[in-house]
Amino acid sequence: MRVATWRGGSEITIDTVPDPRPAPGQVLLKVHSSGICGTDIHKTQGLFPGIPPEVLGHEFVGPVVEVGEGVDPKLIGKNIACTLNASCGECQSCMTWSAMHCEREPRLAGGFAEYVIVDQRQVHIVPNSLDPETAAMTEPAACVISTLNMLGEIEVGCDALVVGGGLLGLLTVGVLKLRGVGRIILSEPNPTRLSMGRQFGADILNDPTEVDVVDLVNDLTDGHGVKIGVEAVGVPELVANVSKMIRPRGNLVLVGVSPQGSALPVDLYDFHYKEITMSGAFGAGDAFGEALETLPNLNLAGVVSGRFPLERTAEALQISSSGTGVKYMIAPHD
Ligand SMILES: [Zn+2]
Ligand SMILES: [Zn+2]
To answer: What is the pLDDT of residue 107?
Structure first.
């Protein structure tokens, strides 16, 4: 089969490797759609840890074509979405942290390929009502839900601000709305992304190149700030800016992934004085199943900006990093 191998920097090669066969407990998936994640791009830019050579892509969906010993053959033909690793459910990290941090089970991913081997414990069956391309966004949706779950119960009717209208920002808007947030302000300079905020439930759209978002939030909240302020880009300066717009006892939420080693340029006295809680979450946490159930309640029409064959993976990563569209897919069998 063919795979797209990341070789370090922006170099991707298309290689032919032996056709994988599922070992006991494993499943072979034929990739229908494999989403390009910000972390895939960040790895090629040296902003997210990764060791080449690696087949990137962890947001893949497709039908099961073969199962290993001990796996129910009824899975064959079913579309599945997969977590990044099988979690043992028994180690310290599984019990006290999340499935994402299992100390025993390796990551089985590598979705920029014609086929992927996964452990059967990674498998979530995609309902027939959900098209596979949409289902490929389960993992990013799970990242958002896992992060918002950290907030506990959300104050119904409160104000929220989301900075960044990429897929994670839009999903954040959508999930906050489903959870009863009142007014949601979305701030995003790209007009295509910004206008998409409406279908997810954003009430106020802000182009920060035209209207300063701090002024806007102050006007809308009589200077008090929002209960929930989300940074969904991954830029420390933006996180700092969002922190200035949180009301007392509000939450600063990190959905974006800032580069490893970045410091937060904020006045910590403000955090103390305003009693702000800051929270982040790593990956899908334990929220994968919840995300699969939530996706049908979100309007994802039009968020996929392009599908690329495997041979064009490098170009797809490049276009994806330009920030013009929302979500791009690698589709090895189109
Ligand atoms: Zn991802
Ligand atoms: Zn474990």
So the answer is: 81
**Is beta strand 160-163 parallel, antiparallel or unpaired with respect to 184-187?**
parallel
- 242 and 275 inside one domain: yes
In a shared domain, residues 6 and 130: yes
State in Å: Cα 117 to ligand 1 middle: 18
Q: How far is the centre of ligand 1, averaged over its atoms, from the C-alpha of 84 (Å)?
A: 9
Residue 96's SS3 state is helix
Ligand nearest to the CA of 141: 1
Q: Could you tell me the sign of the dihedral formed by the alpha carbons of 251, 199, 257, 149, in that order? A: positive
The ranges of the chain with pLDDT < 70 are none
The pTM (predicted TM-score) of the whole model is 0.95
Q: Are residues 74 and 160 in the same domain?
A: no
Instruction: Residue 200: give the domain boundaries.
Output: 151-280
Q: Which of 247, 257, 256, 305 has its CA nearest to residue 277?
A: 247
Give the burial class of 260: count Cβ atoms within 10 A of its Cβ; 0-12 exposed, 13-18 middle, 19 or more buried.
Answer: exposed
Question: CA 177 to CA 81: how far, in whole Å?
Answer: 25
Ligand nearest to the CA of 95: 2
Ligand nearest to the CA of 40: 1
114 Cα–ligand 2 center, Å: 29
Q: Quick one: pLDDT at residue 109? A: 82
How many CB atoms are closer than 10 A to CB 36?
25
Tell how far the Cα of 58 is from the centroid of ligand 1, in angstroms: 6
User: Is residue 144 domain-resident?
Assistant: no
Total domains present in the chain: 2
Is there a single domain that holds both residue 216 and residue 305? no
